[in-house]
């Protein structure tokens, strides 16, 4: 069926699997490829370099390899792309060698003027004249070390692969990072060169080359440039894994001698039952208390549903043409549920297709049973954020999304708009009313990762009186200066005849005292959080308000965070870091704290890590990093729980925003990372003790599952997290 299967798939798979992907990092200046150094042809950039040296700096057309800085043999000249709030995340370079050459290796060198320069990762693609429609990948390299570890050199072996065109895509770590490209060394291998080449490509033609896709994944969504133990080869392999895992987990149930039906720890004492989750400070330490009256530490997993949109991958490019990254797509008829076209775009989910292949008829029901058993076995006790399975009863946190029709200001909205409460109430009332008697619901977060900073205030100050936020600022500022417009004009360098006129004047934030900016942000925060608290309490008085999951160092400020504290029951963050030092930022407020998104990742099988700070070298070290980080957080008396992001890896071929992170407990072929989850299992079993003692678990509380404690099945309640009646917890 044309449109879902590459016609070239059968011809290329053997060649692709032979390509060596792992580039060797070597200090700049060492001996490189054995072949002849090529210095031929032309190159161009996806957009002009605005840093570095001429002739590359500022050039928008072709640059001759004979004259350009990328081929001049010097580590002191470079092409550079300056970072800014509006900088593009990826810089591309396209090279035309003028004819096909067998290549021995390609070396990339990046020098650094200072610590503000660097990169996150780069991918090197190539094609010969005989394959005009698609590229192969010579190597994908994620930067190792810190931003100061430059000059930085990576040598990619090519093993005499034929290539005329080479495209290098370099990604930034963040918008403000400057990218340097110092040297590109292409070494000729052995074999016949191409005959009768096409004419040299123009800059416009090379720009089109940058847009061509490389082949990336097989029919199961697996990276085609690497082999590993457990790589899926056919459907029967997946089906046998299901049979084996189902047998191994067949006796897994929540150990009810240790935990109540909600996962509360019975040995921690009996406390007041309210029928819903609540928070209580006991002996100086905050705890969740389950509806049954037992202490509870949240050990959550995010985005646990197979239907999570972020596990899918786009089918088309931005221009609407099909992507060429797939060797073969799932049959759109047989695997119709794997295809979706909604507000998150037209996409396919290899997760759904592989689950269908693996579990067969009634795939979702069978998958849910295995997933429930996995999570209990691994010691997780909640769905902490985003989507969750439809048929599994676990404690959960519900994310309330901010409506799309609020008046936006960059990543947030105008919190002073008098229509906000009506709009938000209309959007959320149905959810709140339907959930208000759900005993499994822990509480709500609202919005996501969107506080106010001085950047938001800076923009507000340029608005006119049609902006509620601008009006609010002037009305906030006037009494701070005795309602004296002359004094305020002198302060701000304005010439308004009245405060009403000042509302229409553009104000330079540099003229506003920092104390005023800080206090205005606090006012905005109090307005935001009080509004949401009022709406929640209007419809649901049973459940907790857990904040808005801010990232402590991004798109928020301590002023904004502090303004929340009088209105939230607990304060939540999303924090992808490798230590618990962030808690000190909030200690003075005394509020219970949650980290609802964190992860540790590695570079493997075509996937990328989230950031340098949480990158580790192997799957095992993902588990040991989890242990160190989670135990350090849970040891703090304010800390009450975590949410691992996420249940599955993202697609190798990216979700719509370009993320393709190794973040899952399970890969997209529904295979658990066994070495990692075994470590997590041990850690999770001891977290209540870590919190109680303020340190490492000397002895574990006990296994969460039946079968590992030596107790007989007849001696314990085997219902687990599956909606049994409340009466059975009257103990």
Structure description:
It is globular and about 80 Å long. It is of the alpha+beta class. 24% of the residues lie in helices and 20% in strands. Strands 1, 2, 3, 5, 7, 8, 9, 10 and 12 form a nine-stranded antiparallel sheet that branches. Strands 20-16-28-27-26 form a five-stranded parallel sheet, with helices on one face. It contains 15 helices and 28 strands. α3 packs across α4, α4 (350-359) crosses α5 (363-377) and α6 crosses α11. The longest helix is centred in the last third of the chain and has 26 residues, at 514-539. Residues 701-731 are annotated as: Disordered.
Write the layout of secondary structure elements.
Blueprint: H1 9-17, E1 24-26, E2 36-38, E3 42-45, E4 51-52, E5 63-64, E6 79-81, E7 90-110, E8 121-127, E9 136-142, E10 152-171, E11 179-181, E12 183-188, H2 203-210, H3 235-248, E13 278-282, E14 285-289, E15 295-296, E16 298-302, E17 313-314, E18 339-342, E19 345-348, H4 350-359, H5 363-377, E20 382-385, E21 396-400, E22 408-409, E23 412-413, H6 420-435, E24 441-446, H7 454-460, H8 468-480, H9 485-492, H10 499-502, H11 514-539, E25 544-545, H12 558-564, E26 571-574, E27 593-598, H13 619-634, E28 639-644, H14 674-685, H15 687-693
Parallel strand pairs: 16-20, 16-28, 21-24, 24-25, 26-27, 27-28
Antiparallel strand pairs: 1-10, 2-12, 3-5, 3-7, 4-6, 6-11, 7-10, 7-12, 8-9, 8-10, 13-14, 14-15, 17-19, 18-19, 22-23
Helix pairs in contact: 3-4, 4-5, 6-11, 11-12, 13-14
């Amino acid at each position: 069926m044309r449109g879902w299967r590459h016609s070239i798939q059968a011809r290329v798979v053997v060649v692709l699997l032979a390509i060596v992907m792992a580039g060797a990092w070597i200090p700049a200046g060492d001996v490189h490829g054995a072949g002849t150094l090529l210095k031929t042809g032309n190159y161009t950039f996806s957009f002009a370099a605005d840093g570095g040296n001429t002739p590359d700096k500022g050039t928008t057309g072709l640059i001759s390899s004979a004259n350009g800085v990328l081929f001049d043999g010097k580590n002191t000249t470079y092409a550079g792309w300056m970072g800014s709030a509006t900088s593009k995340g990826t810089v591309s370079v396209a090279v035309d060698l003028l004819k096909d050459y067998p290549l021995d290796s390609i070396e990339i060198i990046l020098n650094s003027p200072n610590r503000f320069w660097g990169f996150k990762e780069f991918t090197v693609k190539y094609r010969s004249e005989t394959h005009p429609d698609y590229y192969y990948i010579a190597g994908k390299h994620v930067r190792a070390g810190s931003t100061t570890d430059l000059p930085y050199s990576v040598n990619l072996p090519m093993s005499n692969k034929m290539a005329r065109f080479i495209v290098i895509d370099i990604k930034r770590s963040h918008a403000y990072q400057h990218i340097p490209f110092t040297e590109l060394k292409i070494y000729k291998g052995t074999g016949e060169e191409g005959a009768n080449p096409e004419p040299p490509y123009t800059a416009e033609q090379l720009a089109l080359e940058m847009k061509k896709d490389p082949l990336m994944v097989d029919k199961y969504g697996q990276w085609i440039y690497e082999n590993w133990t457990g790589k899926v080869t056919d459907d029967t392999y997946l089906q046998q894994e299901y049979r084996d895992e189902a047998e191994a987990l067949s006796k897994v149930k929540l150990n009810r001698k240790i935990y109540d039906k909600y996962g509360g720890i019975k040995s921690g004492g009996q406390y007041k039952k309210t029928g819903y989750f609540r928070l209580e400070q006991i002996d100086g330490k905050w705890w969740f208390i389950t509806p049954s009256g037992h202490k509870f530490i949240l050990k959550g997993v995010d985005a646990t549903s197979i239907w999570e949109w972020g596990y899918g991958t786009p089918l088309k490019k931005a221009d609407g043409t099909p992507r060429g990254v797939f060797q073969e797509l799932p049959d759109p008829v047989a695997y119709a549920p794997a295809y979706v076209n909604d507000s998150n775009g037209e996409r396919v989910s290899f997760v759904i297709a592989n689950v269908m292949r693996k579990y067969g008829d009634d795939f979702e029901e069978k998958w849910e049973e295995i997933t429930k058993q996995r999570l209990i076995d691994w010691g997780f006790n909640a769905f902490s954020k985003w989507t969750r399975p439809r048929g599994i009863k676990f404690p959960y946190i519900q994310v309330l999304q901010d409506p799309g029709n609020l008046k936006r200001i960059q990543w947030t909205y105008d919190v002073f708009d008098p229509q906000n409460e009506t709009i938000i109430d209309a959007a959320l009332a149905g959810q709140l009313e339907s959930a208000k008697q759900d005993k499994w619901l822990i509480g709500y977060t609202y919005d996501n990762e969107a506080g106010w900073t001085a950047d938001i205030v800076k923009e507000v100050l340029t608005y006119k009186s049609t902006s509620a936020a601008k009006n609010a600022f002037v009305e906030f500022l006037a009494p701070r200066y005795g309602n004296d417009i002359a004094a305020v004009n002198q302060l701000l360098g304005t010439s308004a005849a009245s405060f009403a006129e000042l509302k229409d004047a553009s104000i330079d934030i540099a003229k506003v005292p920092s104390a005023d900016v800080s206090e205005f942000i606090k006012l905005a925060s109090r307005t935001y959080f009080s509004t949401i608290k009022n709406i929640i309490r209007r419809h649901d008085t049973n459940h907790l308000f857990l904040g808005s999951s801010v990232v402590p160092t991004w798109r928020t400020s301590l002023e904004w965070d502090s303004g929340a504290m009088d209105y939230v029951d607990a304060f939540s963050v999303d924090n992808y870091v490798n230590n618990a030092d962030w808690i000190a930022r909030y200690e003075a407020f005394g509020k219970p704290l949650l980290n609802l998104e964190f992860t540790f990742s590695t570079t493997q099988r075509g996937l990328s890590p989230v950031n340098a700070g949480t990158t580790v070298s192997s799957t095992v070290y993902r588990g040991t990093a989890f242990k160190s980080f989670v135990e350090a957080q849970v040891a703090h008396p304010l800390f009450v729980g975590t949410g691992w992001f996420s249940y599955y890896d993202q697609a190798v071929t990216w979700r719509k925003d370009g993320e393709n992170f190794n973040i899952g407990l399970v890969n997209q072929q529904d295979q658990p990372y066994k070495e990692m989850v075994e470590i997590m299992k041990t850690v999770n079993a001891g977290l209540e003790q870590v919190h109680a003692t303020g340190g490492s678990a000397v002895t574990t509380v006990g296994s969460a599952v039946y079968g590992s404690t030596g107790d007989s099945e007849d001696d314990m309640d085997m219902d687990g997290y599956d909606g049994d009646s409340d009466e059975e917890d009257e103990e």
